[in-house]
Design brief:
By secondary structure, the protein is α+β, with helices and mostly antiparallel strands. The chain is built from three helices and eleven strands, in the order H-H-E-E-E-E-E-E-E-E-E-E-E-H. The chain has helices at 32-48, 58-61, 244-262, and strands at 76-79, 99-107, 114-121, 124-131, 134-141, 145-150, 158-168, 177-183, 186-193, 208-210, 231-239. A six-stranded antiparallel β-sheet has the order 1-11-2-7-8-9, with no helix packed on it. The radius of gyration is 24 Å and the shape is elongated. This is Arylsulfatase.
């Protein structure tokens, strides 16, 4: 289904709600002067309250970075055990940039496994977890490409710091990058993630979860909820600045949408 023109593609309707509260009688055709007056008022109020630019691009409207958010501008997020069901719109925006995850965990004497932190699910997402004690970072690109970066040895009992660092290639949106997994400052695995999600990980009920996976699995190697059997002290996600090309591409898309809307006023 093609996009409808944001201004000219829709039929404007006009109702006198003082006399027609149910909006059953459209007056647009019989009172075009009033319609024009109300259209002008709409754009005046829309400009005042930052509604413009009007945008009908379905993909870009789903991009959380385009929405007002209490977390806007933050570059570091720390979560604790039991945190779950965080919508993507207020979760760290890890797309089209470099970032790192730092998890401080405690492993009991019998060992541990399970989910440390995850976002998304079977059709797009990522997860950091322990598989039979071994640290794993898995990235699922549209369920078409899966990237697994896994340490060779299980974590020993005691306190550990697990870090996954993603170094984005840059040069635009949806590019790849190099992932490095370390435990207590020692590199245990490294690998390429050739394709990354550019706009949105999920359009369903998938969320950011700490200590379990409350949605669908990011891959089929584990069964949800895959509750972590050790102790999670903290999970910190740090975001690095977008590179110039990626930021420029995003801004260019937004600029064109704004120009198109304003030119039709």
């Amino acid at each position: 289904m093609p996009n409808v023109d944001v201004i000219d593609g829709y039929k404007w309707e006009l109702y006198d709600v003082d006399k027609d509260f149910s909006e059953a009688h459209d007056l647009a055709a019989s009172d075009p002067a009033k319609l024009k007056q109300m259209q002008k008022l709409f754009y005046s109020e829309a400009r005042k309250y930052n509604v413009l630019p009007l945008d009908n691009d379905r993909v870009m409207r789903l991009n959380p970075s385009n929405r007002p958010s209490l977390t806007a501008g933050r570059t570091s997020y720390t979560y604790y055990a039991g945190t779950k069901r965080i919508p993507e719109g207020v979760a760290p925006d890890m797309k089209n940039r470099s970032w790192s995850i730092t998890a401080k965990v405690e492993i009991p004497k019998e060992g541990a496994q399970g989910m440390i932190v995850t976002l998304g699910g079977l059709f797009d997402g990522w997860a950091l977890y322990l598989d039979e004690g071994k640290p794993v970072f898995h990235y699922n690109f549209a369920n078409a490409a899966h990237y697994n970066i896994e340490g060779a040895e299980a974590l020993t009992p005691g306190s550990h710091t697990i870090v996954f660092d993603f170094n984005y290639d840059g040069g635009g949106i949806g590019k790849g990058g190099l992932g490095t997994l370390t435990v207590d400052g020692k590199q245990v695995a490294q690998g390429r993630i050739e394709h990354t999600v550019a706009v949105r990980f999920t359009m369903s009920v998938e969320t950011l979860d700490i200590g379990e996976d409350t949605g669908t699995p990011v891959n089929l190697s584990y069964d949800v909820p895959f509750t972590f059997t050790g102790k999670i002290d903290t999970v910190t996600i740090d975001l690095k600045p977008h590179d110039a090309a990626s930021a420029s591409m995003q801004k260019e898309v937004e600029r064109k949408a704004a120009e198109a809307a304003l030119s039709r006023e």
